[in-house]
Design goal:
With about 170 residues, the protein is α/β, with parallel strands linked by helices. It is about 35% helix and about 15% strand. The chain has a 4-stranded mixed sheet with strand order 3-2-1-4, covered by helices on one side. Helix 2 crosses helix 4 and helix 3 packs across helix 4.
C-alpha cells in the first residue's frame, strides 16, 4: 500500500498531512514528537489528492474560527485498538472545551480504580495521536487544569486553546 504526504502552512507552523489515498491518516506539526511514526511505510509527495484538498479547506475554516466538524473528513488514524478508542473520545470533546486525562480514562471504564490505572496509558495514547489539531488532543489538560504534555509543544497547545476560546 502506498502512503502520500503534502504540507500546509498554518498559524502554528508547517503541517505535514498524510493519506492512504482516500483517508487522512496523519497530520503533524513541524518538529512534533512521533512525527510520521504511525505510518507503516514511506510517504510519497503528492499534493493533488481530494482528501488533502478537503483537509486544507477544513484547516482554513478552523484557523478562521469557523468550528468545522471532524465528521466532515474521512479520517483513519493508524494505531492499536486502545489508542483508537482514546482518539475517538478526543473527537467527542466539544470545540473550546478541555477535559483531563482522568476524564478520558473514565470514559473507557466505569471502574474508578481501573480509570486511575489507565490514566498513564491514556496519556501515551493522547501523546501519540497521529492526527493533531483535527483529533483535538490539545483539549486534554492535567488534573489541576494546567497545560501538560503536547507533542507539538506547549506554546502551540496554548495557541490552539486560545483560538478556540476566542470564538
Amino acid at each position: 500500500m502506498d502512503f502520500y504526504k503534502t504540507t500546509y502552512k498554518s498559524p502554528v507552523g508547517l503541517l505535514t498531512l498524510a493519506s492512504d489515498g482516500e483517508h487522512l491518516i496523519g497530520l503533524w506539526l513541524d518538529g512534533q514528537k512521533y512525527h510520521g511514526q504511525s505510518v507503516p511505510g514511506a510517504l510519497i509527495e503528492q499534493g493533488d489528492l481530494t482528501v488533502f484538498d478537503r483537509t486544507k479547506e477544513w484547516l482554513d475554516r478552523y484557523f478562521a474560527g469557523k468550528k468545522p466538524q471532524i465528521s466532515e473528513l474521512p479520517i483513519a488514524p493508524i494505531g492499536t485498538p486502545f489508542r483508537k478508542a482514546v482518539w475517538q473520545i478526543l473527537c467527542d470533546i466539544p470545540y473550546g472545551a478541555v477535559v483531563t486525562y482522568g476524564h478520558v480514562a473514565r470514559c473507557l471504564t466505569d471502574d474508578e480504580l481501573k480509570a486511575r490505572k489507565l490514566s498513564r496509558a491514556v496519556g501515551g495514547a493522547v501523546g501519540h495521536n497521529p492526527i493533531s489539531i483535527i483529533v483535538p488532543c490539545h483539549r486534554v489538560v492535567g488534573s489541576n487544569g494546567k497545560l501538560t504534555g503536547y507533542a507539538g509543544g506547549l506554546e502551540r497547545k496554548q495557541f490552539l486553546l486560545e483560538l478556540e476560546k476566542d470564538e
